[in-house]
Design a protein that fits this description.
- The structure is a single chain.
- The chain is of the alpha/beta class.
- It has helices spanning about 105-125, 145-155, 170-185, 200, 215-230, 245-260, 280-290, 300-315, 330-335, 340-345, 360-370, 380-385, 390-400, 405-415, 435, 465-470, and strands at about 30-35, 70, 75, 90-100, 130-135, 140, 165-170, 185-190, 205, 235-245, 265-275, 295-300, 320-325, 345-350, 405, 440-445, 455, 460-465.
- Strand 4, helix 1 and strand 5 (about 130-135) form a beta-alpha-beta unit.
C-alpha cells in the first residue's frame, strides 16, 4: 500500500488563508519524450529596438475597385489604411470578436492589443506585398463570451472586414459559423478545441495555432506521472474539474485517454461547472469527499482560485493542481496575496505557448511592442500576438495567388505549407489533422515575481501518448 506525500510544504504559511471570491474581470519538430524533468528558465533575448504604435482607428472606407494584379472585394481597398506610413499600399481590414466583459475578460483586451501591435510591426516594415493591415476600435467588438452576442456583433462588422483576426470561444464561434460560411469569412480563434482541426466542424474557415486542450491534457498527464515518480509514488488518484462543453470536455478526454494508455492512475471524481453560473461549492465538496492526489482544472482564473482556496480550507491540503492555460492569470497574485504560497507550491499550468521570457526572435519583438505600449507581461497578449502569424501566412498566400477576395482567402488556408513563428513554435500548416495538428506543449508554474507570473518547468515537449494518438476525430464533440 503506497504512502501519501504532501505536495504542500507551505501549509504553516496559510493559517490565515481566505477563500478567494473576487471576480477576475477564460510540432512535429518537438522531441517525443517521457514526462520531462524540470529545466532552468530560458534566457530572455534582447528586445528589438524598433517599435511602433498601434495605428489609429477610423471607420473603414468603402471598398474600391481591385488593382489589376490582385483581385479583392469586401474589406480590402486600394486606398491606404488610416494613418498609414505607406501611402502606396492598399489596406486589408481585419475584425476581432473578443471578450471584454464576460468570464474571460481578463484575457480579452490583451488579446486584441497583441493583434494590434503585431500588425503595427508588419506595417512599419512595409506591410504585406503592397498592402497594410488595419485592426482597431472600428472593427473590434465585445462578444461578452456569449454565443448570441457574438453573432450580433459579427453582423455589425461583417460588411467591412476581409477576415477575422479573432473569434473567441468555441460555442461562440460555432454559433457564428453559419454566418462565417455565408460570407466565406476565415477566422483565427483563441480556443483550442480539437474539433477545429476538422473541416466537418469548421468548414475549412477556422485557423488555430498550438496544441488542442486534448493534446495539452495528454502531455500534462505524462508530466504528472513523472512528478509523482519523483515523489516516490508509482500511482495516484485524480479528478477532473472543468467548464461544461468543449473546454472542459476536450481536456477531460485527453486526461482519460492518457490514463488508459499509460495504465497509471485512478480517476475518483469528474465535475463540470457552468461558465455562466459556476457551482464552485459543488466542485469543492466533490474534491474534499474524494481527496484526489491530483486535480486537473479546466476553468477560468477566478474558479481556480476559489476551488484551490476552498478545498484547502475545507481540509484537503495535499493535492497537486494542473490547469490548462486559461485557468491561470498573474492577476491572482494581486487580487489575493494570501493565495500566492498555495499557487506557487501546488499549481502547474500547461500551455501551447512558451512563457514571456522565452528566447525567440519573435518574442523579442513582442516584448518590445508591449514595453512601448507600457503593458505588463500578459498571457492574453502572448496568445493575441502568436496567432497572428497564422493570419499573416494565410494573407500572404492569398496575395501570392493574386486573390484577396474572401473566397480567395478561404482557399489560401489549405494551401499554407509553413507558418513561420520566428522561433516561438515549430512550423505549422493546415491539412489532415493527424499529420499537421500541433501536439507540443509547455508546463509552467506560478511565481509572483516572474514576468507574466509564471516560470517554465519544462521546455516544449510531446509526450509519448500524444505522439502516438490517432487524431482522426475530435477528442470531444459537444
Amino acid at each position: 500500500m503506497r504512502s501519501r506525500r504532501r505536495w504542500l510544504m507551505v501549509a504553516s504559511l496559510l493559517t490565515a488563508f481566505a477563500l478567494v471570491v473576487a471576480a477576475c474581470g477564460d510540432d512535429d519538430d518537438a522531441d517525443t519524450t517521457e514526462a520531462p524533468a524540470t529545466t532552468e528558465a530560458p534566457a530572455t533575448t534582447e528586445a528589438a529596438t524598433t517599435t511602433t504604435e498601434a495605428p489609429a482607428t477610423t471607420e473603414a472606407p468603402e471598398t474600391t475597385e481591385a488593382a489589376p494584379e490582385v483581385a479583392f472585394d469586401v474589406g480590402v481597398t486600394a486606398d491606404p489604411c488610416p494613418g498609414s506610413a505607406n501611402p502606396d499600399n492598399g489596406c486589408i481590414y481585419l475584425g476581432a470578436i473578443s471578450d471584454f466583459t464576460g468570464p474571460f475578460a481578463i484575457f480579452g483586451r490583451p488579446l486584441v492589443w497583441g493583434h494590434e501591435d503585431f500588425w503595427a510591426v508588419v506595417n512599419a516594415e512595409g506591410g504585406l506585398d503592397g498592402f497594410d493591415v488595419h485592426i482597431g476600435e472600428d472593427t473590434v467588438r465585445d462578444g461578452q463570451y456569449n454565443p448570441t452576442v457574438t453573432v450580433e456583433v459579427y453582423n455589425e462588422i461583417r460588411d467591412s472586414i476581409a477576415m477575422l483576426a479573432e473569434s473567441l470561444g468555441t460555442p461562440h464561434t460555432q454559433a457564428a459559423l453559419p454566418s462565417y460560411a455565408e460570407d466565406s469569412m476565415v477566422a483565427a480563434v483563441s480556443t483550442w478545441w480539437s474539433g477545429f482541426s476538422f473541416p466537418e466542424y469548421d468548414q475549412g474557415l477556422i485557423i488555430e495555432v498550438g496544441a488542442s486542450y486534448c493534446m495539452e491534457a495528454m502531455n500534462a498527464y505524462e508530466f504528472v506521472i513523472g512528478a509523482m515518480q519523483q515523489q516516490g509514488l508509482d500511482t495516484f488518484t485524480f479528478a477532473t474539474v472543468g467548464f461544461e462543453g468543449d473546454y472542459g470536455g476536450d481536456a477531460a478526454a485527453g486526461v482519460k485517454f492518457a490514463a488508459a494508455a499509460t495504465g497509471v492512475g485512478e480517476q475518483v471524481a469528474e465535475f463540470y461547472l457552468s461558465a455562466a453560473a459556476p457551482d464552485v461549492e459543488g466542485a469543492i465538496a466533490t474534491l474534499v469527499s474524494t481527496t484526489p492526489d491530483v486535480v486537473f482544472l479546466t476553468v477560468g482564473p477566478t474558479q481556480t482560485a476559489q476551488i484551490m482556496g476552498g478545498t484547502f480550507q475545507a481540509g484537503h491540503q495535499t493535492a497537486m493542481y494542473v490547469g490548462t492555460s486559461p485557468s491561470f492569470h498573474p492577476v491572482l497574485f494581486q487580487l489575493a496575496a494570501d493565495l500566492a504560497p498555495l499557487l506557487e507550491a501546488a499549481f502547474f499550468q500547461t500551455s501551447p505557448y512558451p512563457s514571456w521570457d522565452y528566447d525567440a526572435p519573435g518574442y523579442a519583438v513582442m516584448r518590445a511592442q508591449a514595453e512601448a505600449r507600457d503593458l505588463e507581461p500578459d498571457p492574453g497578449y502572448i496568445a493575441g500576438w502568436v496567432n497572428q502569424y497564422a493570419v499573416k501566412a494565410v494573407l500572404e498566400q492569398a496575395i501570392a495567388n493574386g486573390d484577396l477576395t474572401r473566397a480567395g482567402i478561404a482557399a489560401a488556408v489549405g494551401q499554407v505549407t509553413e507558418i513561420d513563428f520566428q522561433g516561438i513554435l515549430p512550423s505549422q500548416s493546415y491539412g489532415v489533422a493527424n499529420e499537421t495538428a500541433s501536439r507540443a506543449t509547455f508546463v509552467n508554474r506560478p511565481v509572483a515575481t516572474a514576468n507574466g507570473g509564471i516560470e517554465p518547468v519544462t521546455d516544449m515537449f510531446v509526450g509519448q501518448v500524444a505522439s502516438a494518438y490517432d487524431f482522426s476525430a475530435p477528442c470531444f464533440a459537444p
